[in-house]
Design a protein that fits this description.
Blueprint (H helix, E strand, L loop, with lengths): L7 E11 L18 E8 L10 E11 L9 E10 L15 E11 L3 E6 L16 E8 L4 E16 L1 E9 L8 E5 L9 E4 L3 E2 L3 E8 L6 E8 L2 E10 L6 E7 L6 E6 L8 E6 L1 E2 L21 E5 L3 E7 L5 E6 L3 E5 L7 E7 L2 E2 L4 E2 L4 E9 L8 E2 L3 E2 L5 E6 L7 E13 L6 E11 L1
Parallel strand pairs: 1-21, 12-19
Antiparallel strand pairs: 1-32, 2-3, 2-9, 3-4, 4-7, 5-6, 5-8, 8-9, 8-10, 11-13, 13-16, 14-15, 14-17, 17-18, 20-23, 22-31, 23-31, 24-30, 24-32, 25-26, 27-29, 27-31, 28-30
Keywords: Signal
InterPro entries: TAT_signal (IPR006311)
Protein name: Beta-xylosidase
Length: 439
């Protein structure tokens, strides 16, 4: 579940007073794992107008995924981040913000081979003349077709600039494949649909043709190639016939400027059971501005997935020595903000340590919760509360939001807490740490 995954963890102290009232604790935010950053030789060709020779340099990049343990048939979202491009602004002209549109490919290896087409938003900081291009990220998806370890390596990328002129700076991996940056391990299961497509390009001008290559379709089937604008099909379509091995290669002319992807399917209409894609594709609108006119453009910037909590300490109610029973309280309210604007949902889980006290402990498995989750009005996603039950050291889901065409929003998460204290637990204060993880 992630569109550029970000992981946050909060630790809250749950204090139990047995025969006395006591508490305390501190907020903690352990650091998440860092994706492996790799470096590789790159050959970049500046626009001809720049009048400079090709650039041979080094690109540093990293790849992340929203699911490192998928099953065959699952769709994995891939984020390719170019940390340091090999190329720079080839002209003396300073480039303003938000005029760069990156596209690229991620190379799959190991149990599954092929390329994943990735694209990035038209978003960048200003670039001075002859200055270095800033870091940028691109996302795309692929369907898992084989079990086992699948490696992901950075591939070729292109930097398109739209300022005065439409210019491209393509950069290719000098000695492919580049080093492996990420690995996913797919579980063996019978795929419901292992049809797949790749595109010859991730972008083009209105009216340009893109070659769609497909595999694992029904041999001899008529396959429709179509553009997509979000979840709707555009008027850009073409048909091809799959060969005896279920493969095909055909051209699709894409004219609709709202296109976000390309699909291929068997039958009279799109179906996830008999189709493949969408493969990411964007139309670069290079329509000239009429005389005495001004082209107005705005950008909606993607944010992050984050959470905060009202406080970091919960005081559970006291119980009596010799009687024990339910020591109750309420989780400090957690606010989740998903401002990424992509297709990935999120999951908020928790796990608790044993409750340590004066010469004794209360087992973590005795803590249970009853989750509740509310969605702010206008949020594209709907928050789902986790199931009531034991938290324990292995953990449980507190709340979640599913994947969708467009996800996001603001959510408030609460839970009633109950610790089952044994009857003759020695008097004193007992504390455990409940750690919440947002992915």
């Amino acid at each position: 579940m992630a569109y550029g995954i970000r992981r946050r963890r909060w630790a809250a102290v749950l204090a139990l007073a047995a025969g006395a009232v006591a508490g305390g604790g501190a907020l903690a935010c352990p650091a998440g794992a860092t994706p492996q950053e790799v470096a590789f030789a790159t050959h970049c060709i500046p626009p001809a107008i720049a009048g400079i020779p090709p650039i041979d340099g080094t690109t540093t990049a990293k790849i992340t995924v929203d699911d490192a343990s998928p099953k065959v048939g699952d769709t994995v979202t891939v984020t390719y981040t170019v940390v340091t491009p090999a190329a720079s602004n080839p002209t003396d002209l300073a480039l303003p913000a938000d005029i760069m549109t990156p596209t690229g490919k991620v190379a799959l290896g190991g149990a599954q081979t092929g390329d994943v087409t990735v694209t990035g938003p038209k978003k960048n900081d200003p670039v001075p003349g002859k200055g270095a291009f800033p870091s940028f990220s691109m996302t795309g998806t692929f369907t898992v077709t084989s079990p086992g370890a699948i490696t992901l390596s950075p591939g070729d990328y292109n930097i398109h600039t739209s300022y005065i002129l439409e210019l491209d700076t393509p950069c290719t991996v000098t000695d492919p494949p580049a080093p492996v940056s990420e690995t996913v391990t797919a579980a063996d299961t019978t795929p419901v649909n292992n049809r797949a497509i790749t595109l010859s390009s991730a972008s083009g001008k209105p009216g340009d043709s893109v070659t769609v290559t497909g595999s694992n379709f029904t041999p001899g089937a008529t396959v429709t190639l179509a553009g997509r604008s979000g979840t709707a099909q555009t008027a850009d379509t073409a048909t091809v016939t799959a060969d005896a091995q279920g493969a095909f290669s055909g051209a699709l002319t894409v004219s609709d400027r709202t296109t976000t992807g390309v699909v291929a399917y068997e039958g009279g209409a799109w179906s996830e059971d008999e189709g493949a894609g969408p493969a990411t594709y964007i139309v670069v609108d290079d329509t000239p501005v009429p005389a005495d006119s001004q082209k107005l453009t705005t950008t909606v910037k993607a944010g992050t997935l984050s959470m905060s909590q009202a406080a970091d300490t919960v005081q559970l109610s006291a119980v009596d020595f010799g009687t024990g029973g339910a020591s109750q309280g309420a989780l400090q309210t957690v606010t989740v903000k998903d401002f990424r604007g992509g297709p990935a949902g999120w999951s908020l889980t928790g796990k608790v340590t044993d409750f340590a006290g004066p010469g004794a402990t209360i087992d973590a498995g005795r803590l249970s919760w009853t989750p509740a989750c509310a969605t702010e009005a206008g949020s594209p996603s709907t928050c789902l509360a986790g199931s009531a039950g034991t938290v324990g050291t292995s953990g449980a889901t507190l709340a979640s939001a599913p994947d969708g065409t467009l996800t996001g929003g603001e959510f408030t998460v609460d839970a009633g807490l109950s610790l089952d204290v044994p009857a003759f637990t020695p008097p004193g204060s007992y504390s455990g740490v409940l750690t919440l993880t947002l992915t």
